[in-house]
Amino acid sequence: MIKVSHLSKSFHNNLILDDLSVEIEKGDVVALIGSSGAGKSTFLRSLNCLEKANEGELDLDGFKVDFTRITNKQRLELRQQTAMVFQQFNLFTYRTAFENVKEGLKIVKKMSDSEANKIAREQLEQVGLSDRAHYYPKHLSGGQQQRVGIARALAMQPKLLLVDEPTSALDPELVEEVLQTIKRTAAGGQTMILVSHEMNFVYEVANKVLFLDKGKIIEEGTPNEVFNHPKSQRTKEFLQNYYRIKQTTADVMNLTSPA
Amino acid sequence: MGKIFDINAVFTSIPSLLRVLPVSLEITFISMIVGLVFGLIFAVIRIKKIPVLSQIIIVFISFIRGTPMIVQLYLTYNGIPLLLKFINAQYGTSYNINAVPAMLFVLVTFAFNESAYNSETIRAALQSVNKGQIEAAESLGMTYFQVLKRVILREALVVAIPPLGNALIGLLKGTSLAFVAGVIEMTAQGKIISGSTFRFFEVYLALAIIYWVLTIIIEQILRLLEKKLSIPDPGQQNRTRGRLFSFTRSDI
Predict the structure, then answer these.
(1) For helices B53-66 and B102-127, what crossing angle results, to 10°?
(2) Is residue B200 assigned to a domain?
């Protein structure tokens, strides 16, 4: 079980995360939704110490960390137990897809070359990129790069996978392949926290949805509860705006598509 | 006097100039290597903003950049003996000032100089590395030194090679100042030869040609290094690997 308690962060006197607490069961897919600036990414990044939280604790399956007095050793340990998928992919430019996946296994997990090779091969196969193993990131499409990013994260066998807007930097045509990969990962039982603006996807893949606004969790429940029966006014507004934009797009597409 | 310009004197002086080429190269490469190591250390100290050390380095770099090389050479040339004298007087030791090889003054000065300039180049290159990749490496659980070694340096190297190459070429030519500390390198040798043959222009022309050729060689090596460090095109990866020093037709 994973438990985040009383996580807070402020920056230049702006409260970005306001006393957030979340409980996550093994195999849960927790989705964070909310408008930009609500603190979704900051929440994820704080869990991985890429941002320094001012307060809060994390219990990761018995491995306990207090963010106010986290030691260097704990930070490394925490990062080894979690893994992150980034909005901008953040692949290592000068390493091939294969080397990207292998990097953490060799350097952090200190695996033997053959062991690391085996896992890297398997992970690339999982995301359907065996034939692109020896390509450098700049020769891969955005969708392929993100799938390598997912393979790199999964290779570390994280107890918790942190996925930060995995499709926001992608061409619309490439979104689907990445969503499918994440869906498969979720179906495989990987515990994860997902930040996404793809509401349909969130609805399908998550079993718990948190709606964040101004650093606070203001709605929490199953996808059905949050999307179809939102309690708070703010959630309703957010969802209405989202669907209105979707509807407008659909209208435009109907207008322009040949009859 | 015979001919106004004696082309033969150009050619005949080349071998005797080349006899001291190793001295020039020794100064160049030792100073560059020391300068790279300390340049990197200084750069990391400044990026990590380590108190006291960071401020000392800022003043040191400012001093090196703000004073002429030749003055720095005079300072070490006259300063190290003073320091030895002081140590002898203070601790009753008896280091022999005359036993200190002239080369040491030169190496110390050049190495300090390179460290200062290189540290600025390296600092800029390290800071140019995309932050996302650093975060990705950190999120895998790498320590700072692993991130530095595995991600930052690799990336920074590509950025730093052209300006560091410039520094190397500047250094090679700068070695001609070593004569003020009594080291006989190529330029000093040129002075000596021309002093006895009176073919000043011819000897200095030969000297210029040698420096120029050396610079061209360094430029070519750097060009190959840059090519080696760049990302190969898809499908070419196996062919370009491991042939830093082999030429193909297109290189020539």
Answers:
(1) 110
(2) no
- The Cα B175–Cα B219 span in angstroms is 18
CATH number, domain of B78, equals 1.10.3720.10
Domain extent, residue B123, equals: 21-183
- The token pair that represents B170 in the structure block: 């500047």
Number of domains in chain A: 1
Q: What is the pLDDT of residues B59-111, one digit of tens each?
A: 999 999 999 999 999 999 988 888 888 888 888 888 888 888 889 999 999 99
Q: Which residues of A touch B145 (CB under 8 A)?
A: none
Q: Does A242 touch chain B (CB under 8 A)?
A: no
**Is B226 an interface residue toward A (CB < 8 Å)?**
no
Please report, for the domain that includes residue A95, its CATH number: 3.40.50.300
pLDDT of B252 > 60? The answer is no
Which residue in the set B132, B158, B237 is minimally distant from A88, CB to CB?
A: B132
| Count of structural domains, chain B | 1
ipTM for the predicted complex comes to 0.90
If one counts every other C-beta atom within 10 angstroms of the C-beta of residue A151, the result is 26
Q: Is B237–A79 a contact, with Cβ atoms under 8 angstroms apart?
A: no
Residues facing A14 on adjacent strands: A11
Q: Is a pLDDT exceeding 70 seen at residue A256?
A: no
Q: What are the backbone dihedrals phi and psi of residue A23, each rounded to the nearest 5 degrees, phi first?
A: -120, 135
* pLDDT of the residue at A60: 93
CB nearest to B155's CB, from A82, A90, A93? A93
pTM of this structure: 0.83
Residue B143 lies in a domain: yes
Tell me if B225 is assigned to some domain: no
- In this complex, is the C-beta atom of B236 within 8 Å of any C-beta atom belonging to chain A? no
